[in-house]
Design goal:
With 260 residues, this protein is an alpha/beta fold. It has two domains: 6-200, 2-enoyl-CoA Hydratase, Chain A, domain 1; 205-251. 47% of the residues lie in helices and 15% in strands. It is built from eleven helices and ten strands. It has helices spanning 30-46, 69-72, 80-95, 112-119, 146-154, 156-165, 171-177, 189-200, 205-219, 225-237, 240-250, and strands at 6-11, 14-19, 52-57, 62-64, 101-105, 108-110, 122-125, 130-132, 169-170, 182-183. The strands form two sheets. The protein has a six-stranded mixed beta sheet, sandwiched between helices. Strand 1 and strand 2 form a beta hairpin. Helix 1 (30-46) packs parallel to helix 3 (80-95), helix 5 (146-154) packs across helix 6 (156-165) and helix 9 packs antiparallel against helix 10. The chain is globular and about 60 Å long. The two termini are 30 Å apart. It binds 4-(N,N-dimethylamino)cinnamoyl-COA (DAK). Residues 24-25, 27, 65-70, 72, 75, 80, 83-84, 87, 108, 110-112, 134-135, 137-138, 140, 143-144 line the site of 4-(N,N-dimethylamino)cinnamoyl-COA.
Length: 260
């Protein structure tokens, strides 16, 4: 697939994906969703030696200002349910991606944009970041997992308020509520994300993937998280990386992990 709306740059195993529709505040149209699906469901999985992914939006104003309202207006009264299923599938691919994915939130993260940021494993926001689920303003509800993930991050009380009022919150409140991991200076969102991924990249890659899998299991209705942890722990203890990590500790040196 040739990417039209995603700009993809890989440096030292870190992939920077910029959603590149600045004039529409990086709104998620069908093409962009297909490209995200292609990256997180195929291209990104096939790339060797990936350490992590940073997702951001083009320009200084928006991460993603939601699903493309102008495009989905043409949907009429049919197709909404199928599109929500498709969107949820794409965002589950992000959430289940075996390498860490950080949303570098450089402005509005509204509707589908807030949902996309929440599907990422970590969120680093700039001071201009604004989060919200304004769907009720349009007479609809979030369709890409927003009603569920917002509760996971900030609890039912505040999630209910934001979902019902369509109010936006700024970066500091998002930090206080646990929606973002850190707030950095304007323009430093991507670099701060890169720094965090570089730190994670010094750890055992199999262990990192297993952490993602196990944490996700906590929220999966069809999985016992504790049992998932037992199996994942067992799998990590059988890796050469564990032998290397333990040996490096004893020998008082840095571990040289190979991801096996
Ligand atoms: N879609 C399409 N275009 C958008 C857009 C969006 N979500 N957000 C902004 N734009 C466009 C504007 O139309 C404008 O384009 P021009 O008029 O210049 O051609 C340009 O971006 C700049 O926007 P503004 O002029 O409005 O900029 P302001 O600074 O004045 O305001 C804003 C910024 C972010 C507060 C405002 O643009 C805004 O309220 N945007 C919409 C936010 C929003 O409601 N987002 C959508 C939430 S609903 C579904 C599945 C999922 C969903 C829906 C359906 N199905 C399965 C059917 C999810 C829906 C959502 O995400």
């Amino acid at each position: 697939m040739t990417y039209q709306n995603l700009q993809i740059e890989e440096t030292d195993g870190i992939v920077l994906i910029t959603i590149n529709r600045e004039k529409a505040l990086n709104a998620l149209n069908k093409q962009t969703m297909q490209e995200l699906r292609h990256f997180f469901g195929a291209d990104g999985l096939e790339r060797e030696g990936i350490k992590g992914v940073i997702l951001t939006g083009a320009g200084e104003k928006a991460f993603v200002a939601g699903a493309d309202i102008k495009e989905f207006m043409g949907l009429g009264d049919s197709g909404g349910q199928a599109l929500a299923e498709y969107g949820q599938e794409v965002f589950f691919m992000v959430e289940r991606f075996p390498h860490p994915v950080i949303a570098a939130v450089n402005g509005f993260a509204l509707g589908g944009g807030c949902e996309l940021a929440m599907a990422c494993h970590l969120r680093i926001a700039g001071p201009n970041a604004r989060f919200g689920q304004p769907e009720v303003n349009l007479g609809i509800i979030p369709g890409y997992g927003g009603t569920q993930r917002l509760i996971q991050y900030i609890g039912k009380t505040k999630a209910m308020e934001l979902l019902l009022t369509a109010d936006m919150i700024g970066a500091d409140e998002a930090l206080q509520l646990g929606l973002v991991n850190k707030v950095v200076e304007a323009g430093a969102e991507v670099e701060a994300s890169r720094k965090m991924l570089q730190k994670i990249a010094t750890k055992g890659p199999v262990a990192i993937s297993k952490i993602i899998e196990t944490v996700n299991a906590y929220f999966a209705v069809d999985q016992d998280g504790f049992q998932t942890e037992v199996s994942a722990f067992g799998a990590t203890t059988r890796t050469a990386d564990f032998v290397e990590g333990a040996t490096a500790f004893v020998e008082k040196r840095k571990a040289d992990f190979k991801g096996v």
